[in-house]
Amino acid sequence: PPSNWLGVFNSGSAWEWNEERQQYYLHQFQVKQPDLNYRNPSVREEIKNTLLYWLGRGVDGFRFDAVNYLYEREDLADEPKSNKIGYLDTDYDSLTHTSTLDQPETYTIVRQWRQVLDSYRTREKKTKFMMVECYSPFNKTMMYYGNNSEPGAHFPFNFLFIGTFDQQSDAAQVHDMIRSWMYGMPTGMWPNWVLGNHDNARVASRTNPMLVDGLHMIQHLLPGTSVTYYGDELGMIDTNVRWDQTVDPAGLNVGPYRFLKFSRDPVRTPFPWDNSYNAGFSNSSSLWLPL
To answer: Where does the record locate the signal sequence feature (predicted)?
Structure first.
């Protein structure tokens, strides 16, 4: 392969050989998800046209997933070992991702997309919204906001509650997390607060079921946008999903002895609507994931 880069879902090399083309192609995620080359102007234009298409159909906003993976270093430089304990050489976290995350060009294209959305705002007198997802260091996350003269996303997701708040955390830490985001944002930007999502243990399992209501009250009383993951408002906890029930590639790729460490299936199980069959979620005799 051209470099030692690894797939996010612990699949080994992020490079896949294509026999027909006699070339490797890059897939930071699954093999069936080839990365786009955003250094190609035709690719950038196609993405811009895609935004314009949906804006033309009345869409009011976009969520850009895993935006920090858009660009990689042009020289394909190998990434250094992270020396983290408990990871195999094929695990994504065994490397420090200096060549494949948060490259300078990523911030530029986010600002360009914002310009596309703002052009519609000028035309329709209505804000077209843009939020981006990135698990990045705090200072790099804040850069996705841009600034008042060159705005980027309306906000990057605030994952402080997910990444730093656990069963040992106290009120002082909540205070510090709130202050760090409010004072870390560029001037005039809009805050947001995320307690849970589809990639991490549910807030009731990650912290304490007794804290769920209080944390949601704090979240909804703070200035800015609150983001709630389905079921967290009910206090749903992680579901026990066996190996034979696992469907998440991040779990499947590491096998039956390590899947529990990586699989996100326990937080993606069906929403319980009522006390009827399959909790009112479906009449099917089998579900994609168990209740």
So the answer is: none
Closest CA to 153 of 182, 201, 203, 116: 116
Token code pair at residue 217: 């009250």
Alpha helix stretches (DSSP H) within 125-202? 138-143, 160-164, 171-184
Phi and psi of 141, rounded to 5°? -60, -45
Q: Which two tokens stand for residue 196?
A: 């849970």
Q: What is the pLDDT of residue 154?
A: 98
Question: Under a CB-based contact definition with an 8 Å cutoff, are residues 119 and 153 in contact?
Answer: no
Q: Is 105 assigned a catalytic role?
A: no
Q: Which two tokens stand for residue 78?
A: 């190998």
Distance CA(192)–CA(141), nearest Å, equals: 13
Are 82 and 93 within 8 A, CB to CB?
A: yes
Crossing angle of helices 41-56 and 104-124, rounded to 10°: 30
Distance between CA atoms of residues 219 and 210, nearest Å: 16
Reduced to 3 states, what is the DSSP secondary structure of residue 90? coil
**78 flagged as catalytic:** no
What would the pLDDT profile of 123-148 be if each residue is shown by its tens digit?
888 999 999 999 999 999 999 999 99
- Which ranges in 185-211 belong to alpha helices (H)? 203-206
CA 73 to each of CA 4, 36, 77, 180: distance values in angstroms, whole numbers, following the listed order: 13, 14, 7, 30
Domains along the chain?
37-280 (3.20.20.80)
Rounded to a whole number of angstroms, the distance between the first and last alpha carbons of the chain is 41
Q: Does pTM top 0.90 for this prediction?
A: yes
Q: What is the pLDDT of residues 228-285, one digit of tens each?
A: 999 999 999 999 999 999 999 999 999 999 999 999 999 999 999 999 999 999 999 9
| CA distances (Å), origin 227, targets 40, 178, 200, 235 | 34, 15, 14, 15
Which of 16, 72, 133, 232 is catalytic? The answer is 133
202 within 8 A of 232, measured Cβ to Cβ: yes
